[in-house]
Amino acid sequence: MATPEANLHATIFSAIIPAPFGFMGVRTELNQLTELVYLPPRFQEKAPNDAVSEQTARQIERYFSDPTFQFNLPLKPYGSAFQQKVWQAIARIPCGEVRTYGQIAKHIQSAPRAVGQACGANWFPLIIPCHRVTAAGGLGGFAHHDDETGFHLGVKLFLLRLEGVAEYNRSSQQQVPMW
């Protein structure tokens, strides 16, 4: 059941789409997707209120049924030149594979911490699959969240498992609470 706080925050979204871990919040403006947000189960579904949020909802549903699905949505341009460079490198990581922050940094001639900051600033998770970027020694962080409840790291782990990344399969020793 949605909490009063969740209902208040729901007004900023053009749609709230069910996801296996909770929901995806969709924000649109002027016929462009402006943001995707991972939302916990305390939210409730909200029907798309425009063509772009409807298109986004359909594509998110396709991704969850087939993680190899390629998104094709009108994205609002964001980010610095450096962030764009990181996001382009992340977008080239194939489904079912991961790269470390260090590998991305070496590829674009930067530092791992800077890559991590750019990952966290990603406005379009799933589309720019920052969940495919991990730490050298394990899962790493996700989406600039503290994860005291484990929600965001749980989402990252779920997405890696959905995409079939072997080292994060269900029998993995990696224990992250899902919610």
Automatic annotation (TrEMBL):
GO terms for biological process: DNA repair. The keyword ATP-binding does not apply. InterPro entries: MethylDNA_cys_MeTrfase_DNA-bd (IPR014048), MethylDNA_cys_MeTrfase_DNAb (IPR036217), MGMT_N_sf (IPR036631), WH-like_DNA-bd_sf (IPR036388). Residues 81-165 form the Methylated-DNA-[protein]-cysteine S-methyltransferase DNA binding domain. CDD domains: ATase (cd06445). Transmembrane segments: none annotated. It comes from the Bacteria. One of its GO terms (molecular function) is methylated-DNA-[protein]-cysteine S-methyltransferase activity. SUPFAM superfamilies: Methylated DNA-protein cysteine methyltransferase domain, Methylated DNA-protein cysteine methyltransferase, C-terminal domain. Keywords: DNA damage. PANTHER family: METHYLATED-DNA--PROTEIN-CYSTEINE METHYLTRANSFERASE. This is Methylated-DNA--[protein]-cysteine S-methyltransferase.
